[in-house]
From TrEMBL, chain A:
Keywords: Ion transport, Membrane, Transmembrane, Transmembrane helix, Transport. It comes from Corallococcus aberystwythensis. Residues 21-401 form the Cation/H+ exchanger transmembrane domain. Residues 698-721 are annotated as: Disordered. One of its GO terms (molecular function) is antiporter activity. CDD domains: USP-like. This is Cation/H(+) antiporter. The chain crosses the membrane at residues 6-23, 35-54, 69-89, 101-125, 137-158, 170-194, 200-224, 236-253, 259-276, 288-306, 318-341.
UniProtKB/TrEMBL annotation, chain B:
Residues 127-268 form the PTS EIIA type-2 domain. Keywords: DNA-binding. InterPro entries: Cro/C1-type_HTH (IPR001387), Lambda_DNA-bd_dom_sf (IPR010982), PTrfase/Anion_transptr (IPR016152), PTS_EIIA_type-2_dom (IPR002178), TransReg_Diox_bact_type (IPR050807). Residues 7-62 form the HTH cro/C1-type domain. Gene3D superfamilies: lambda repressor-like DNA-binding domains, Mannitol-specific EII, Chain A. GO terms for molecular function: DNA binding; DNA-binding transcription factor activity. It comes from the Bacteria. This is Helix-turn-helix domain-containing protein. One of its GO terms (cellular component) is cytosol.
Amino acid sequence: MNPHMLAQLLVQLIVIIGVSRLIGRGARWLGQPLVIAEVVAGIALGPSLLGWLAPDAMHWLFPPESMPFLKMLAEVGLVLFMFLIGLELDPKLLKGRGHASVAISHSSIVVPFALGAAAGALWLYKSLSSPDVPFSSFVLFMGVSMSITAFPVLARILTERGLMQSKLGAIAIACAAVDDVTAWCILAFVVSLVRASDLAHAGLTTLFALLYIGFMLLLVKPFLARLGARVANREGLTQNVVAITLILLLASAWTTEYIGIHSLFGAFMFGAVIPKEGGLAAALAEKLEDVAVVLLLPVFFAFSGLRTQMGLLDTPEAWLTCGVIIVLACLGKFGGSAVAARLTGLRWKEAGAIGVLMNTRGLMELIVLNLGLDLGVISPTLFTMMVIMALVTTFMTTPLLRLLYSPEDLARERLVQTPEAPLPPSAYTVLLCVSHGQAGPGMAVLSRALAGERNEANLYALHLLSPERSLKARADEALDPSAASGGALAPLVGRAEKLGLSLRTLSFVSSEPARDICRTAQAKRADLVLLGWHKPLFSQTVLGGTVHEVMQEAGGTVAVLVDRGLSQVRRVLVPFVGSRHDRAALGLARRLVKQAGAEVTVLHVTSPEGAGAGRAQVEELFPADEGAAVKLKVVRHASPEEAALEEAKAGYDLVVVGLGAEWGLEDRLFGVQRERIVRDAPGSLLLVRHPEGATVLAQTPEGARTQGSSPETTPSVGARS
Amino acid sequence: MHLGATLRLLRVDAGLSLRDLARRIGVSSAYLSRVENGVDAPPTQERLTAIARELDVPPALLMDVANRVSPYVAGYLEDVPAAGTLLLDIARRKLTGAQLARVRAFLDAEFPLREVRGDEPVPPLAPLLCAERVVVQLSCGDYEDALDVAAGRLASALPGVDAAKLAEGLRQREGEAPSQVGNGVAVPHAFVAGAAPVAALVTLARPLKVDAPDGQPLRLVVALVDGHVGRARLMRLAHVARLAGRGLADRLQGAEEAQRVLETLEELEALR
């Protein structure tokens, strides 16, 4: 290449890129993808427009002797571009899309392929091909060129229209990906068939191609996965890594070229096997994209535009043929995929949209056509017709899509398919509500017992400041910086630290403490809301005021700790008659057994005249394997409350009791005389309420998941009692 | 105020990838990434206008987010020094937000803007709030707790929505794009199909150490829930970022009552 040629090439590049961008602005205005503009720019610079208007200018700009350089540049650009296409092809797109997209993508290849091949065989071969082109190659090529879908253009259109996340977009992109891979495989086969002189050679080429694919998948892919992990972990994308990747890319392209199935296939394949996780693919794409897409790809378009000679279509018949090709192409692709989509159960509207999308041929078609022209399979006339077909099918996608699938439809679809996935299970969560510092230490001890040695629970300590008190609290804080974590929470936090308990504290100003407790519990998905009780015991009922409100509103188990110096949880009493609150109390006791090794005594009280049916119930709830730590006492007594109180005096650390009239505990505001068990029991108490219809959650971390059959975990059992 | 973080938040919410947006406004994605991370200088007026056009939010709103005394104002003042005198007059009178709104109404009537499209008023934040959804003086050890508290308040305004699911939604969005917009403000947001937009506001008693783009500890959380994805939602997000830039967190710092918070906000928002 002499210096003059270099100057020539630079001028060509300037003109090509400039004109593409210029027309690109117009395309944007029309809402068309940039590809259209680039193709049109190429055609305009070629003999179809510039050569027609000013042949001298075209000859000056693109003299025939400069074509080889342009071609080489275009080829390198294509290799890079196909690599990028492969990079964009995420195998995740192909997996798990269900049979719908498989069926659609297959029929969207088979139908247009058959139509194209039939048209080629019956009609075009005679009229537009020369006898020295092998019949089989021509027919196969026509089939392939009709069944191309432009994966990149499609992806761009879907992104620009915000359809990528929709069901429609997911199906379309998966189909396009499958189509792409399939079409390139068929094309590779056709190319090998054309290039090989006879069938034996073609077979050999196919064999080598299969070996190559196996090599890429089995050896190169794992290597790249490791390289990708390195990039993701430590080094980032250094220039060395880029160099290695480029060398491998070029080697892969060279191999396929050498085997006889075009270099583009190798580039595509290499891009496809690069791992898409960990950022290697994204980083590579970012580095190479601008050079490939902005600089080199327009050269390719210009090059194919230079070979497109509209002048060849000089008769009405030629234009008619061109029209028929366009109709056939649309019929095959649009019809094939739309009908298949409809058959898989999509509505006609969606099916139509899929058909329109799959009909986008874009630049992939141009690549295939150029290949065909290079190989001499198709004549320049047919090439021109097919280029027009590619342009028309791409051009009509966006307006048709807008017509079929308006933004309102999209909005509606988004509303319909909001994800309703259930939340993942979380660890046992307890919300400790502290209104006064006094209650803190006892709650810490109980939490320790509920969480166990290994801290198998999420503990949140909530302290709500009343709007009036907050000012005072802040004044205290100013005086005593050590109380900065919230004065009321300090005793709880202090004891928790001593016990090695990890908990997170929360406090804010609230004018409706009960509602805020319930809302926070709901947001935290608390299995248990634990309330502290601190007021002087004889002046007011436990179950009144805020406690009452929380119990009314909460969606889960609520327990009130009446702390009388709780320092350990060894001996636990659970009075039991069988209500849902009693069951929840048993559930908590059971957790204490599992996590803290507590000894639980279940006091089952039956009425003097009643049968012993309850006993079976208790045994059902506490299976024999836990029997060691659980003692069952059955008492016949006219007043369960009396019986429980008597037993409670026998030196228990904690009495866990469900709410209910039988224990003299009801969750409404009533007189002092009724809460005898609270007043007279010597030890600490835990009063448990379980709302109607809610499941009793998580006795133990494993118990809740594996013992799904155990009665407490099913809400229906609660209803039975 | 961190423009980059806000841009990223808006971009992710608009469903655009870094590469998409970069391609559309004709810059390299590396450059856009640097802008989002605050490594590069804020984009020029033209680029910011292009970004606003792609995101479909009013360009003026983004420019307002960009800086406290925006370079666009500075540029104008240089060209027309008399305008500076006018600003000085306004400053000497110590006009409040409400009074400035009147000045603006006069401007709109007297000198209407030529390009009307894209410059309609931004939906204010205050009407989306009420005293019930304002939590003051939250002290917590983790940003997640603040999200949960906000979710709890939001859920009671949204019938049929579970607070835990809402909290999960907020967290999920947070995972896609961090909602810290700088100046001690975070704007977590979630999508609830068909819901009318609501907001919850949480002021923190103790600033939280979080990964803020400008390194300032978190002092204010404004959680937004929308029933529709699109322009209005993006404008709300950008608007909160702009409020953050105008010192929202500082002004609400000492507020003890929800009502005070709402009043401060209304005053600040009078001129949008």
